[in-house]
């Protein structure tokens, strides 16, 4: 009996031992045409074993790359794609640069801050006033949604002016949407999300119950 401990390592375990053995067999074929036919057949088998790869862009290219990886780049066949090099696949990706910008108020988010910082670019005064009032109400909504406390309109106005670097300013903070109205909107939104989550759980639970009951009936019949 042959044990896995006595066999060679699996280069890509998701394809299994049989596919790797088929590749080794193809490598031993002396006739190039025969090797090419064997490689095409192996690619078809690999695609059937991993149907999820079909959702990947250019999945056949990926299969051919895996084929050469499992042959340790020693399989000499005609590939429809450029044959990869071991050095290129082993090369480590570069370090990703993370944004260095800081968010002054986390509950408002980065894009709120960006919009307000660019407020000085708006030349039309009516549009600037509309933007200021809309963003102030949005900021108040965000504040109430993320904090368990009420907030004075003057606080929102001051923070908006700070984020806009003085380019935008709420003329009359008392004209902002009433706190109770916003809290009601927040409560409605949270209740809707909760109902959606509960309906999803009930649906999933009912499917499980139906499957279990069907399995029981089938078992009794047998």
Structure description:
This protein is mainly α and 222 residues long. It has two domains: 4-90; 110-215, no CATH class. It has helices at residues 16-28, 32-49, 59-70, 86-90, 110-117, 125-146, 153-163, 179-221. It is elongated and about 85 Å long. The two termini are 38 Å apart. The relative contact order is 0.06.
Would you kindly provide a brief summary of this structure?
By secondary structure, this protein is mostly helical. Helices cover 59% and strands 0% of the residues.
Q: State the helix count.
A: 8
Percent of residues in beta strands:
under 5%
Radius of gyration: 31 Å
Number of domains: 2
SS-based class = mainly alpha
Mean pLDDT: 84
- Stretches where pLDDT is under 50 for at least 5 consecutive residues are 218-222
Shape: elongated
* Main sheet summary: none
- Kindly state the number of beta strands: 0
